Amino acid sequence: MSDSVTIIGAGLGGLALARVLHVHGLAATVYEAEPGPAARAQGGMLDIHDYNGQLAIEAAGLTTEFRDLILPGRQAMRVLDPDGTVLLDKPDDGSGGRPEVQRGELRRLLLDSLPAGTVRWGRKVNTVRAVGAGRHEVVFADGGTVATSLLVGADGAWSRVRPLLSTATPEYTGESFVETYLYEADTRHRDAARAVGGGAMSAPAPGREIHAHRERGDTLHAYVVLAEPHDWFAAIDFTDAAAATARIAREFDGWAPELTALITETDIPPVWRPHYALPTGHRWDRVPGVTLLGDAAHLMPTNGEGANLALLDGAELGKALAAHPGDPETALGEYERAMFARSTEVATATAELFGDSFDGTARSLAAAFAGDGLSPH
Fold it and tell me: How many CA atoms lie within 13 A of 162 on its CB side?
């Protein structure tokens, strides 16, 4: 390749691609809209699977460092009925193959593994256009531009690169999370802490769920799941933290107080996270000089696979480019064929599993987790 690979987006997938390219002696430049690596919180816990995410970590040569990030005991899983009855209490015996790490710590590991200057911060993309011969020009919000012969959109759900390849746009799935945090949980939020236990906890009912993780330190991170239209959430004033908390909690009247405490005792204003998805099996015809990875390519409803697929996409694309020096089109074609098949298989399997065996109740979820060791996030 005559110039460095241009990657838009410094999420896990884009950074995994840059790292694998670096391992193989290939140059990459990552452009990221955020002003710096600490510009915002990077989300909560991730379970990194031995059949996809960990393969990417291995390809990046970071397995030893990754193991140092693993939080012991966090693969434990509890399922509770809304009345607080414990239906499943699976300890973390170390055999689950899905160790838990903090997303921000994993991102930092990838960032620190790259040569200085690889990531260009504060470079928000305005537009991207083809300029002929497989080359593309990226125009940034500050007026700067960069031209490249190999462009990778690792820029998430609302990718600015995707329109070069596809007319598909994400659509609301009909479900949102409302995110809360409880700090110093074992002393300040004892009932909630006991309900969550040492790892993850889910308490579902049809159209409603309270899910929580125990993160590093003494922190509980909760996701309150509601199957409601987008307009239902838009009518809630999330700038009024007390009113928004009370409105969300009202949807869980009658639930056990140790569960609703994960809403009412939040130490941060509740944060609305609407969920969007691209069509299952989203794909495109080969366009010279450009491709997508992660959510930009195959945004799915929450199923525990998004970060893992993004990591593997980045690693597999890096390996393909390294295997075909001087012939990026062959590399992109091989990568896309495998990525399309992989992401479609995951999306289809998830839909079939939860369509066939999960009726929204805690008992059916407990049975699914007991039988399959599924990821709750």
Answer: 23
Residue 288: count other Cβ atoms within 10 Å of its Cβ.
Answer: 15
CB 319 within 8 Å of CB 59:
yes
Tokens of 37: 């690596």
Q: What is the pLDDT of residues 261-299, one digit of tens each?
A: 999 999 999 999 999 999 999 999 999 999 999 999 999
| Whole-angstrom distance, CA of residue 217 vs CA of residue 214 | 8
pLDDT digit string (tens) for 116-130?
Answer: 999 999 999 999 999
How far apart are alpha carbons 222 and 207 in whole angstroms? 17
Residue (of 28, 36, 31, 32) closest to 60 by Cα position: 28
Length of the chain: 377
Pairing of strands 220-226, 208-214: antiparallel
Rounded Cα distance, 30 and 42, in Å: 18
State the pLDDT at residue 354. Answer: 59
What's the pTM?
0.94
CA–CA distance from 189 to each of 253, 261, 262, 310, 343 (Å)? 19, 8, 9, 35, 39
d(CA 31, CA 346): 29
CA distances from 212 to 44, 49, 106, 208 (A): 10, 19, 20, 14
Question: In this prediction, what percent of the chain has a pLDDT beyond 90?
Answer: 84
Contact 134, 289 (CB under 8 A): yes
- Angle between helical axes of 328-357 and 362-372 (0-180°, round to 10): 130
Task: Note the maximum CA span of the chain.
Answer: 64
Predicted confidence (pLDDT) at residue 372 exceeds the cutoff of 70: no
d(C-alpha 75, C-alpha 91), whole Å: 7
Which pair of tokens denotes residue 281?
Answer: 């099996």
